[in-house]
From TrEMBL:
It is an enzyme of class 4 (lyase). Residues 3-320 form the NAD(P)-binding domain. It comes from Chitinasiproducens palmae. Residues 147-159 have a biased composition (Polar residues). Its EC number is 4.2.1.46. Keywords: Lyase, NAD. GO terms for molecular function: dTDP-glucose 4,6-dehydratase activity. It catalyses: dTDP-alpha-D-glucose = dTDP-4-dehydro-6-deoxy-alpha-D-glucose + H2O. Coiled coil: none annotated. Residues 139-160 are annotated as: Disordered. PANTHER family: DTDP-D-GLUCOSE 4,6-DEHYDRATASE-RELATED. InterPro entries: dTDP_Gluc_deHydtase, NAD(P)-bd_dom, NAD(P)-bd_dom_sf. The keyword Lyase applies. This is dTDP-glucose 4,6-dehydratase.
């Protein structure tokens, strides 16, 4: 049994769906269902006894402890977080609460449970903490990519709260011997990503004939990884990673935001041509994000050397698959783009 947190969100849900394609080990999926959590993503698992869903806040220590006692997991895969940088600028409190206090609560409940396990189960237990490359700060164009030993220099409330959670995860290994593994991954894209993030937002706005907002001049660089590749990396680290170690996960795929949006426009144009002009005409440059990190890039040689993982998708194949998925799943997109989503669009874009 795996105890997984945040499995109704983008990456967690992809992980759950991928897991059951090749594995019958059950998962208890612990998610508070914030605006970013969507059970519709997991509809195909309805009635599947392998998937147990629990609507629980990871900051609720008693509830989390009860889940450990009830389900007796052999491992935790911890995805749950507040994950959007722009939201962290408008409301950092929720990020400190879920990312720092929530991770602490998970680690503490895991430690209590793990200490009571018989020797062989205690040795085999794993706590995999899923984190981000944003904890390393921002690179200049000529800097080498982030490695596992790059000093932490988080710049946003989001990355600072994730950095805090990474430090706690590290401390639980060093202080208590809890078998913690940490992954720091670059920007993900793919099916079921909430349309507040650049790629799904661009696809949704392009199809709706709305402006495609580019912060600043569009030259900020991100290292894009297909979500299925990230999930494969997490499975490898869970199976064969060494407790106490950190693994950087990236796509070897640095792109400027403008290049990303251009490619998405061109993929859409080829599939659903606009009657007049091109989707690129909808690009609108808007006021930059405060403290906007210039460049992220991951040196993913350690996970390749030690665990044999490399991304399977390229920029071209992964982006084409993603555009195809969004075109084929407009209902999912329409479902999540209501209520709270509309309020967010007003908050983030009206004053830019
Ligand atoms: P997401 O925002 O799509 O999903 C987060 C999920 O966590 C949601 O289902 C939400 O309901 C749940 N959640 C939030 N607060 C909770 C709480 N207090 N208790 C229980 N559940 C709660 O995020 P994502 O993009 O899937 O990211 C998952 C993890 O991967 C995060 O830890 C994030 O920092 C990390 N990460 C994301 C990326 C990326 O590009 N998206 C890249 C690297 C690392
Ligand atoms: P995002 O998807 O929010 O991920 P992150 O900030 O975690 O990297 O943004 C990716 C990049 O796209 C980032 O440089 C900010 C930029 N961006 C825009 O230019 N316009 C937008 O509307 C959004 C949401 C992001």
């Amino acid at each position: 049994m795996l105890l997984l947190t945040g499995g109704a969100g983008f990456i967690g849900a992809n992980f759950v769906l991928d897991w059951f394609k090749s594995n019958d080990e059950p998962i208890v999926n612990v998610d508070k269902l914030t605006y970013a959590g969507n059970l519709g993503t997991l509809r195909s698992l309805q009635g599947d006894a392998r998937h147990i869903f629990s609507r629980t806040d990871i900051c609720d220590a008693a509830a989390v402890q009860a889940l450990f006692e009830q389900h007796k997991p052999r491992a935790v895969v911890h995805f749950a977080a507040e994950s959007h940088v722009d939201r962290s600028i408008h409301g950092p409190g929720a990020f400190v609460q879920t990312n720092v206090v929530g991770t602490f609560t998970m680690l503490e409940a895991a430690r209590q449970y793990w200490q009571g396990l018989p020797d062989d189960e205690r040795r085999a237990f794993r706590f995999l903490h899923v984190s981000t490359d944003e904890v390393y700060g921002s690179l200049e164009p000529a800097d080498p990519p982030f490695s596992e030993t790059t000093p932490y220099q988080p710049n946003s409330p989001y990355s600072a709260s994730k950095a805090g959670s990474d430090h706690l995860a590290r401390a639980y290994f060093h202080t208590y011997g809890l078998p913690v593994l940490t992954t720091n991954c670059s920007n993900n894209y793919g099916p079921y990503q909430f349309p507040e993030k650049l790629i799904p937002l661009t696809i949704a706005n392009a199809l709706a004939g709305k402006p495609l907002p580019i912060y600043g001049d569009g030259s900020n660089v991100r290292d894009w990884l297909y979500v299925g590749d990230h999930c494969a990396a997490i499975r490898e680290v869970l199976a064969r990673g060494k407790p106490g170690e950190v693994y950087n996960v990236g796509g070897w795929n640095e792109q400027s935001n403008l290049d990303v949006v251009h490619l998405l426009c061109d993929l859409l144009q080829a599939r659903r041509p606009k009657a007049q002009g091109s989707y690129r005409d909808q690009i609108t440059f808007v006021t930059d994000r405060p403290g906007h990190d210039r460049r992220y890039a991951i040196d993913a040689r350690k996970i390749e050397r030690e665990l044999g993982w490399r991304p399977a998708q390229t920029f071209q194949t992964g982006f084409a698959a993603t555009v195809d998925w969004y075109l084929a799943n407009q209902e999912w997109v329409a479902d999540v783009m209501s209520g709270d989503y509309l309020k967010w669009v007003e908050t983030n874009y009206q004053e830019r």
